[in-house]
Amino acid sequence: MFQPGGQDGFMFQPNPPQSQTPMKTEAGIGSNNFPTTSDTTQDSLFNGLYANPASYGGDHVDHLLPGFPNWNLDTVQNDPLQSKADALLAFCFSNPDYRTSNAPAAENMRNCLTVENIKHFVAEFTNFQGHWPLIHMPTFNLLEANNGLVLAIICIGAVYSDKLNVPQVRQMMELVKTAVQSSSRVYALVNAAPSGQTNPIGQSASDVEEMQALIMIQLMFTWHGNTSHRAQARQEFATLVRIARQVNLLHVLPPGSPGYSTLHQPGSLREELDLSVWDWNAWVEQEKRARAMFMLFLSDAALVIYFNCPPQFDFHEIRLPLPADDAAWDAKTATDCADALGLRGPSAQEKNITGSRRPKQPDLRSALRSLFDPHFSFQPRATNVYSKFILIHALHVQLWKISRYASQGNSVPNFNGFLPSGPSTPLSQNDCVVQNGSSGTASTANSGCATPIDGTPIANNPQAQHAINVVHQAFIKWKLAWDIDMKLQYPPEASVFRRFGFSRDGVHFYFLGLALLQNHSRRPSDWQIPPDNRFQQVMEMLKRIKDPAARDQQQQRQDIGSVGDIDDTYGVRDLTLDMKLLFKPIDQQIDSPISGVQTGMI
């Protein structure tokens, strides 16, 4: 399962990379590339999906759905997938007005929701899953999953498909959004509840799947839409935040809950865990909730960084451990997961090359306190690459907040909250940090923070200057941890393939942070730039830092990662966006190969 250098986060190897130029739309909304005859076979749909089909499931490879090992088509001879397709159509058009208000979009959706096209779009979705490992593929069952979530998966898969053009995909996502929001139990209950009131929802698997669907739709409207779609995403994000709070997504489930997980509880693991009391299913349910919350947290951070939206989450209120290692998340069995977590001894864990190899991950608050406190630094291998991606985005949010308050001539509120205080567990009791370690020694020559220009708000605000320096040192400590851990978790000699996934490539945001630190001194009012203008500005900055980031990673004998793959035209020339130019499809020639798909019974 955990081959050295292998990619954690995929269940199959998708299509060879498509052309990265935006798809032509001259054919119009009404044209598509669906087969015009009924003799399209399953084999033809999946040609090119595998470099070596025999290695992906043995004798029954033709009966497997890529990326979804619990779906064995040998078990669905009575075609329950057709029943699922019918259910999805009914879900989309539960309101008859949907069918008549936009007939071309309705016809397009009917064409998409055939058995063969569902399989095609679901297979393409894995390109996105590789960037954002939100769905627990080993236990996900398409036939039983929430219809809204399946539609969101299909919609994202359509982004990567050559069967639809970009305008058609946007029509699809608008229809799916309407259907999901109008049918979602959590969406309806939270919108009906007074602010601050807690609803008895959020603990069932269906509730979590509804949240996952809403999150995916939010992502599509942000990164695959036009100006109007992005404005909707920004405006409606507050509803998702309210849902997350009212379903208690910011905290682990308490004892007695179906998804209560010992390894997600606060504090370090002080003694060896008795495997007889460890429940893989409960672990998976809590990890699904945590990953949904961290996707919301990252969405919030992205709205801050790219669109100048004030943050709606404070890291102090999120009482969750950071995401588990990919090897544990992608494990197909309880035994494989226990091995990856180290519950069955160090020798069984050796295959977990790319992770932290910790049965319990540090919580978000403690990890950030470790970065802000000059008296502590991370132990080697304390965090995995996804956790580092989350942490670097949290630093960006703090930087934006300081700049905003300082430019307004205000003091920086709750700055002492960066550092250990109150009833929190002392950092000295945290096994992921070491005391008296580096206080922030730069790991690169270009890590200085610009001196504030006389007359600027920050130059006249000593508290803001101090806060900026603390955040700057946190960026440097983050980079030091990145450099140390990459040598351990992604050793250059371990594989000829490269690391794949946007969420596994936080180093570009370190260089973006340094650039923004310079800007905060020279252009302190950048936080006031209108959303789409700010978006273009940040995308230009990411484009400019590709070269220094690549040089730095080459010096470390590391690849440039998926952020370096962003198309140079994305968000710069045309503000009508194509998401696959941001989150590129996997390239089977250079990206890490995927372990074989296992079959299972529904």
From TrEMBL:
Xylanolytic transcriptional activator regulatory domain segment(s): 125-334
CDD domains documented for this protein: fungal_TF_MHR
InterPro entries, sorted: VerF-like, XnlR_reg_dom
A biological process term (GO) from this entry: DNA-templated transcription
Signal keyword on record: no
GO cellular component annotations of the record: chromatin; nucleus
Keywords assigned by UniProt, alphabetized: Metal-binding, Nucleus, Repeat, Zinc, Zinc-finger
Protein's UniProt keywords contain Nucleus: yes
Pfam family, one: Fungal_trans
Domain of life: Eukaryota
Sequence segments annotated as region (Disordered): 1-38
GO MF annotation list: DNA-binding transcription factor activity, RNA polymerase II-specific; RNA polymerase II cis-regulatory region sequence-specific DNA binding; zinc ion binding
Subcellular location as annotated: Nucleus
Protein name per Swiss-Prot or TrEMBL: Xylanolytic transcriptional activator regulatory domain-containing protein
Organism: Cryomyces minteri
